Amino acid sequence: MSAMNAFYAQSGGVTAVINASACGVIETARKHKSKIANVYAGRNGIIGALTEDFIDTNRESARTIAALRTMPGGAFGSARYKLRSFDENRAEYERLIEVFKAHNIGYFFYNGGNDSMDTAHKVSLISKKLGFPVTCLGIPKTVDNDLPVTDNCPGFGSVAKYVAVSTREAAMDVKSMARTSTKVFILEVMGRHTGWIAAAGGLAGRSSAEAPHIILFPEIAFNKRAFLRRVKECVEKYEYCVIVVSEGAAYRNGQFLAEAGTRDAFGHAQLGGVAPVVAQIVRDNLGYKYHYAIADYLQRSARHIASAVDVQQAYAVGREAVKYALQGKTAVMPVIKRLSDSPYKWRIEPAPLSRIANKEKKLPRRYITKDGFGITAAARRYLEPLIRGEDYPPYFNGLPKYATLKNVSVKPLLKTKFVV
Amino acid sequence: MSAMNAFYAQSGGVTAVINASACGVIETARKHKSKIANVYAGRNGIIGALTEDFIDTNRESARTIAALRTMPGGAFGSARYKLRSFDENRAEYERLIEVFKAHNIGYFFYNGGNDSMDTAHKVSLISKKLGFPVTCLGIPKTVDNDLPVTDNCPGFGSVAKYVAVSTREAAMDVKSMARTSTKVFILEVMGRHTGWIAAAGGLAGRSSAEAPHIILFPEIAFNKRAFLRRVKECVEKYEYCVIVVSEGAAYRNGQFLAEAGTRDAFGHAQLGGVAPVVAQIVRDNLGYKYHYAIADYLQRSARHIASAVDVQQAYAVGREAVKYALQGKTAVMPVIKRLSDSPYKWRIEPAPLSRIANKEKKLPRRYITKDGFGITAAARRYLEPLIRGEDYPPYFNGLPKYATLKNVSVKPLLKTKFVV
Questions:
Q1: How many domains, chain A?
Q2: pLDDT per position as a tens digit, A126-159
Q3: N or C: less crowded end of chain A, CB within 10 Å?
Q4: Residues of the domain holding B339
Q5: B118 and B189 housed in the same domain
Q6: What burial class does residue B279 get, using C-beta atoms within 10 Å of its C-beta: 0-12 exposed, 13-18 middle, 19+ buried?
């Protein structure tokens, strides 16, 4: 078989280490030029494929590609764009295959979360149906850590480390000022449906006496009375209370706390996350002085404090995806299998996309303490290895020196345009 | 003169490097045991002196004291507690001197901002008046960088680095998703009255095409029309717009964009939540999808990304304060004098507290671009050296290993209690 091209795209919310996966894909592909001539990256993810807007990664030096390993964000652009089912939008799939055919693309590497694994799976099925079979590989990526089968998801370890470090540091600040200033500090973190990120905040302390004193998980219905009782208890016992709240924290009826926002003087719905809502509950009922932080994108882009284990795994899933493809495996995703907690050992192995697509892994109840406000020893055993090691980017004049890519476009070959 | 004890207290909001100053004080004092027998640290700052609640730092090992250099927060507790004028509250000053006398305290080191320099100055005057002259030294500390005379304030360089790094990282995230997701990202930073911290966000980009595209300073009255025009321009030109907004951003009439209504012990309005206000202005007028982050305490406790220059200077002002005291200087503060921008050179010299107390250094207009939304080359020349170098704390199992102090109390000697 003569060399074909590969298509690589990033999908959905980016992470601090998604480019490490790109690095793994491209560096490994470059070692097999006889089989993979070039890796075309989709500009803005799958949209790049639909609109025939490819980035020619062969135009980037080995040094630049190596630097992807330490670069946050999505080096080629990512997209929130979900292909619908074949019946719903046949034109999109036909277009994709037409473009792949025109550019001699025999390999499709899709770096994303649940939705993307579904897309990669569909493309593998449909490419065969349309007579141009493409080898389709999923590459896991999500800060939410909610993909099934794999022990954990690249991207999560770094956001977990960021949240644990930030919680520990902010807690030390609050503790030292508690006598005369802020009593309650709230840190809002991501995780709309699952509490993995919030749970990571729990690593900041080693016991229930240490911050964070309360974690609010999406998996545990918010109980205002129990919450307020615990806040009061903490302030009385420790002089302060640190709370990590998931953006997905919700009432028993499923309503997000964040949706229960107040209205301003003009009747406008007060914008904001869940942190100000929790703050207001504390203020209205207990009157304590509070502060809150909303980490938002800072948490998932904080490459400066990435977990070394996470970077290694992100690279490894990219590398293995290419190896699997070259072995003729298709419709699979490299997953991380944990071999032992202590010492932490893991390996990569393939798993069929059909087992992964559109499924969501929630934080197990046994990872949450009985009272619903903390993490258990089992959770610590699971989480701790994932934040291990520092993988600092290079710095120049006090700031991280992140890669700058040329991102040169591949000449379009089709006469037709496709509007997404 | 036989050895006397020293009193050291932290005051006001803590920083990532205030303990480095404590380290400088204690390590230097320990080298002069014949003059300074012990450094008593105030538990919760000046409150520890008023209530005769001292921490015996001689009980801490050399290793623990050395570890203060990498520990965020306030190791002995800080306080927002301002001594009033002598006429207003003579009892507080008399109590202070009574306690100092009882514990043979001849040196007072007060580590804080404007208000604290005023207190240190008053104590020096009053102690003489009351017949127990105490050598009073101010030690500068404030993330706000608003102390006069000194070129910059320890604490600022690290928050500046955090804000610049975070802005750069978040901007890369937003840029890579802009095609189908968030167009406008807002980062809210501290700086009640001065835009120094917001200005530091400007270091994230090297030109007006790079993020942050807009900085909202307290020094520049908020002009909604010009702001919206610039946001639109950026989104049309770059596909996205990153905004750094100071908590102190205000309208022409002086009203803060966000006012929480409550006031702290110093009578300052407690701010918070300008980011959602700016987001709402964007949404209501331009309809762009937005996200915002509120760094809050994370920015001033982020020891994991402290500036090496800042750590060095924080240590140096502590060390020099002790040296000045031993030279018989009183009512002075070590200030940082910049000798050159490039290469960056500085030295420490003494300045009288009377020149520093209760004065505020605003961001000069020449540091802000003509349009009011960015920083000038002069600002870059000033700011850049302050964030240079990384001074990483040690890590254990993925988390910074911060010092744990014994904080053993000194036995009270007075029979009277004092309620603050």
A1: 2
A2: 999 999 999 999 999 999 999 999 999 999 999 9
A3: N
A4: 4-142+306-358+392-400
A5: no
A6: buried
Is B256 inside a domain boundary? yes
Residue A270 pLDDT exceeds 80: no
CATH code of residue B376: 3.40.50.460
Q: What is the largest CA-CA distance in chain B?
A: 73
> Are B196 and B294 in a shared domain?
yes
CB within 8 A of B161, min separation 6: which ones? A398, A399, B200, B305, B306, B307, B310, B386, B387
Give the distance, in angstroms, between the CA of residue A382 and the centroid of all CA atoms in the same chain.
Answer: 17
Fill in the amino acid letter for B225: R
Q: Least CA distance to B280: which residue of chain A?
A: A271
Nearest chain A CA: its distance from B328 CA (Å):
31
Is A101 found in the same domain as A23?
yes
**Which of B17, B3, B21 has the alpha carbon at shortest distance from B107?**
B3
User: Dihedral of the CA atoms B250, B255, B257, B263 (nearest 10)?
Assistant: 110
Is A75–B399 a contact, with Cβ atoms under 8 angstroms apart?
no
Is residue B45 included in any domain, yes or no? yes
Contacts (Cβ under 8 Å, ≥6 apart) of A296: A188, A190, A273, B170, B291, B292, B293, B294
How many other C-beta atoms can be found within 10 angstroms of the C-beta atom of residue A380?
17
Residues A29 and A117 in one domain: yes
Residue A377 exposed, middle or buried by CB count within 10 Å (0-12, 13-18, 19+): exposed
Q: Which of A181, A293, A298 sits opposite B170 (nearest CB)?
A: A298
CA–CA gap between residue B220 and residue B270 (Å, rounded): 20
Among all residues of chain A, which has the CA nearest to that of B46? Answer: A180
Collect all residues of chain B within an 8 Å Cβ-Cβ radius of residue A79. Answer: 177, 179-181
pLDDT digits (tens, 9 = 90+) for B111-154: 999 989 999 999 999 999 999 999 999 999 999 999 999 999 99
Given A301, A317, A342, the domain boundary residue is: A301
The catalytic position among A53, A144, A310, A391 is A144
Residue B383 — very low, low, confident or very high, per pLDDT cuts 50/70/90? very high
CB-nearest partner of B180 from A80, A164, A395: A80
Residue B262: pLDDT band by 50, 70, 90 thresholds?
very low
CA distance A131 to chain B (A): 31
Same domain, B66 and B197: no
Both structure tokens of A196: 């993995």
Q: For the ranges A160-164, B174-178, B259-263, B320-324, which has the lowest average pLDDT?
A: B259-263
ipTM of the predicted structure?
0.96
Q: Is position A106 within any domain?
A: yes
d(CA B254, CA B192): 12
- Asked if residue B133 and residue B66 are part of one domain, the reply reads yes
Contact A222, A260 (CB under 8 A): no
Q: Say how far apart CA B101 and CA B277 lie, in whole Å.
A: 52
By the 8 A CB rule, do A219 and A195 touch?
Answer: yes
Q: Are B280 and B310 members of one domain?
A: no
Contact A134, A127 (CB under 8 A): yes
Looking at residue A105, which CATH number applies to its domain? 3.40.50.450
Question: CA angle, corner B213, sides to B209 and B218, nearest 5?
Answer: 145
φ and ψ at residue B295, rounded to 5 degrees: -75, -35
Structure-token pair, residue B137: 């030294």
| pLDDT digit string, tens, across residues A361-377 | 999 999 999 999 999 99
Give the single-character DSSP code of B368: B
Question: Does residue A104 form part of some domain?
Answer: yes
Total Cβ atoms within 10 A of residue B208: 12
User: What is the nearest CA distance from B149 to chain A, expressed in angstroms?
Assistant: 25
The closest CB to that of A293, out of B13, B79, B298, belongs to B298
Do A283 and A180 have their domain in common?
A: yes
- What are φ and ψ of residue B350, in 5° steps? -85, 145
